[in-house]
Amino acid sequence: MLQDGKEDYDSEFAKGWVDTMESYTFNERNGETDLTVEMIINSEWQKMFDAGWPNALKKLKEICEQ
To the nearest 5 percent, what fractions of the chain are helix, strand and coil? Predict the structure, then answer.
């Protein structure tokens, strides 16, 4: 975790990221791009990610289509 430009391995917040994994895969199919997102996260953050994904994916789509 980077906090104020410094690496943080010891705070409780940083420790909450241990064993977190995010994987993003782009595949072309019939001239279109499919995005697959796989995540392993702390269950406490599930609601935050669920709420944020629609806006994040909309913005990513806009960027990719430029």
Answer: 40, 35, 25
Structural domain span for residue 38: 20-66
Residue 10 in any domain: the answer is: no
- Residue 28 confidence (pLDDT) above 90: yes
Q: Specify whether the CB–CB gap between 11 and 3 falls below 8 A.
A: yes
- How many residues does this entry show for the chain? 66
30 in the Ramachandran plot: left (φ > 0), alpha (ψ -120 to 50) or beta?
A: left
Helix (H, G, I), strand (E, B) or coil at 56: helix
Number of domains in the chain: 1
Q: Does some domain include residue 6? A: no
The answer to whether the predicted template modeling score (pTM) of the entire model surpasses 0.90 is: no
* CB within 8 Å of 7: residues ≥ 6 apart: 1
